[in-house]
Model the fold of this input.
Amino acid sequence: MNDELEREFQNTTRLLLGTALKGLDDYSGWIGRRVPLPRETKSAISGKEAWVGPPFIYLGKEFNPRNAILLEEMDQANKSPFKPEDLADASVRDVMKKLVSPVRYHVGNMRYQAHENVWKCSGAGGGRNLYYCDDVYLDVKNVAYSNYTIWSHNAFGCHGVMHSGFVIHAYNSSKIARCFEVDGCSDSSGLLFCHNCENVHDSMFCFNSKNLRNAIGNVQVAPGKYKEIKSRLLGEISAELEKTKSLKWDIFNIGCAGGKR
Done:
């Protein structure tokens, strides 16, 4: 990670929360809490550092970390150590056990298109300043602790996001901006803790809604009242994050607030 990515993390938190949080890695447990992230291992061929995709990518299957290789080592892995006579009279079971299983690999450190400043990523490319990510490609910039985030910038702790910018904890969303803790939203901006919203702007705690502005819980309020409540909420969020480096509530558990879980 470099200074530029840290600055953009601070700029993004300042824009969304009104407070610049310092030290991206200090918030790693919170930022990556809901995101399938890459895993570190060593190449079976060279022993070099290799980052492989999470089990989520492979239908939940755990791969043996000893079978990881780097992208640039594929040619070496493709050279078979076996001879034609090794297959003579071999059953399918024997072929799988003796010939296939010992040499099967999964590739780490996948890179695509031009890229700059990429660290700890199992799959990334087509951008710059990409950190601790999987499947982050195509015109991306300043993205960290994210999975399947494309055509986006200044995205932290995101999963399934495209054509978006300045977002923290956005999931399954597209064409959103300045959003914090959202899921299933599109063509929206300035959202806090919203689910399944379309063309909703400067709103919080909204769900299954369209075409709202300055709304709280799907009810539109006066702009001044909205700003007042938002300011108090962001103050509480920032204080908790600075103190604990985490936040109790997110878009997936906010419905349990005030009740038994």
In short: DSSP finds five helices and 15 strands in the chain.
